[in-house]
Request: fold
Amino acid sequence: MNESIMMSGDACNPNNINNTTTTINTNNDFSTTNHPYDDDDDHHPNHHNIISSTKTSTSNITPTSIVSSRGYRALKPPLPYLSAFFQALSNPCHEIHNSQGYIALCVAENKLILDTLSRRLLQQSSQQSSQSYYYCHAAFESQDNYCYNDMRGMMHARESVARFLTRKFLQPCTNSTTTSTTISGEHVILGSGCAGLLNGLFFSLLEEGDAVLIPAPYYAAFESDMKVMAQCIPVPVYMANPSKGPTVEELEFARVSYKSSVKVKMLLLTNPNNPLGTVYSAQTVKNAIDWARCHDMHTVVDEIYALSIHDTSDDTNHDTNDNSNNDTTDNNNDNNTFQSVIYILDNQLGHNVHFLWALSKDFGSSGFRVGVLYTQNQVLNNALSNLNVFSSVSQPMQSVIAELLQDDEFIDSFLNHSRKLLRASYEIVVEALEEMKIPYVPAQAGMFVYCDFSSWLPTNTFEGEAMLVTFFQDQVRIIMTPGECQRDDRPGMFRICYAWVTPNVLRIAMERLKHVALDRMRVGGIGGDGEGNTDHVNLQQDVMNKCYF
Reply:
């Protein structure tokens, strides 16, 4: 049984905001005490190796004598299901050569478009006099790329990104070149993915022990981003309708609930949302920011999926903002067409609103480690010119990206192609879910579907969810993201990431799940009827121990 996804302790408990950290004693036993910054080190895949390595030494050697308490805190993986994912990598499913292998549906990456992007980066340039010039040569042709430079990014790269953001996120309504309709490269900072930039934001804007409000369910690794270095505390905001985003009343309830124990100093929004795949209306975003500003809080808006909006239910060009209604605060504007916070605020972010994006999702390039922060807070900007030495982007990669983002024709074609591929895989999943009668959240964006397997739980608890996680992994060989790790308060929710595998492998995964659904109908449940009223042992023998791969 894989410990990293069992979640039997506090690792994914949404009610345990203050979590735990490990205290070491001379007997090498791991006891726990309340601590706001760490949780469930037992679920780290190397945990037992740590214990065994200390037990083979003298009794005076303990984990904290090998590394500091900060180093020990960093042992916790950013995602609780990482070891299950690594197991899947060791024996992956292939439609022809290994149809019985593991299928990882837990990674929000778009591998569907990698061939298209790699061909573009490796092709010859038609604009160069030399026929041997390839676009990737931009990485090494300038001697500046070999030397120290501004840790926030080389200015030509920051200006290229600023132009891209202006075109794709701000989308000016007029031909004016005033400050409000253009983004300055001076306000753009490049970092090693959104995680590195988030770490810098938490470290620079908050104090140790300050709290961050995050609408739940949310991306599991946000907690690691704020805990490991900045030692800040995540506070889930639970909502009546998570798909629409938080209301002012729900934000205020969360703030008041925790203000006696922690200082709530930041709001973190993800739009489009992960794991729901939905888009917040412009009004929802603006209301949340106005509320945060009233309480002297910073707002970070993560728009990492903004260019992966694949919903084609209307004729909107989801690649850019819809400028047909310039009044983004119109109370009648409820259509949830995506609009960037940069556009919603008319490019007036001030010192307390900060925009994030990266190539990791929309360009399927998480390995490039290129994240983008747009902030008009000059003091923060200056601070990151120092701190970003720990998470800067390599200058050869900056030059490659700077050249790529200037190619408007390719970018537009590439993103349109990506959306079509995402939608096709999305439909494979939702058609199967509908056939199995599994409820799901209709997604507009991203590369995942959030669905409700609560009817398959042996008991309607998070312990029951952990059992179902293990069943999926061991008997179905499918790895999905469980809702508890995303701080959902409802057992049985799962995120299915469908763009990390080919459509044919995705179909194999859906067929496996459909076979489970058929057996459920035959025996009345995975480990029971959802209420714990069926003979669990008999059903384990009939279903839980059956292989579906």
About this structure: The CA atoms of residues 456 and 526 lie 6 Å apart. The chain has a mean pLDDT of 81. The chain has 19 helices and 14 strands. The radius of gyration is 24 Å.
